Amino acid sequence: xxxxxxxxxxxxxxxxxxxxxxxxxxxxxxxxxxxxxxxxxxxxxxxxxxxxxxxxxxxxxxxxxxxxxxxxxxxxxxxxxxxxxxxxxxxxxxxxxxxxxxxxxxxxxxxxxxxxxxxxxxxxxxxxxxxxxxxxxxxxxxxxxxxxxxxxxxxxxxxxxxxxxxxxxxxxxxxxxxxxxxxxxxxxxxxxxxxxxxxxxxxxxxxxxxxxxxxxxxxxxxxxxxxxxxxxxxxxxxxxxxxxxxxxxxxxxxxxxxxxx
Length: 261
Fold this sequence. Notes:
With 261 residues, this protein is an all-alpha fold. It is 80% helix and 0% strand. The chain has helices at residues 6-31, 35-42, 45-78, 84-96, 99-110, 115-122, 131-155, 159-167, 172-200, 204-209, 216-227, 229-255. The radius of gyration is 22 Å and the shape is globular. The mean pLDDT is 89.
């Protein structure tokens, strides 16, 4: 049997420290509220409304990312062009920009002093303090996660399959929907889950654009500020469970991905 050296035990120790760092606060938070308190929280219509709004807005943001981001993800995976790295860097910007800055940036063009804001106002579309504003923010922060994941999925498909389809007389659109899309669907679903999970956890940008109606992270913050940990923890537990379900689905899809030969 191979002797396990110091480096092996270093990796094990590092893993234990990292897992403890992540799990200890979460386990303590989840175990703090009693079962009766969690049940009582679910009877609170405001809590249910905020959690549902978080799920609805995040799912809508993921759907918008799917419709608008899939063509761009395919373009980036299949095409080399001047300025491609700049485009990819711009797509990644929402990941690194401080979240309050995202909210301020969106409001700066959605206000009546900007021509886009004036056009939206004329169409009866309100961004500040509305569900539309929440969805806009969540799409902004979640879009990079979908595009990057879908791009990797498209890039893993051999271009030769598409060339064979085109050589047999199929159009580009037909080739995409009959060949590429079925082969890349798993990556796109994973991208949708990643986008939804990222969006459902957003707070900093949403609280600037639309404090009301409240999504779950905003309600958790408000209850913490007003009543402390006791009343904010149960809502946080339910939100953590929702996120956990999303990531369990992600892991199941990832594990079932067929291995490349």
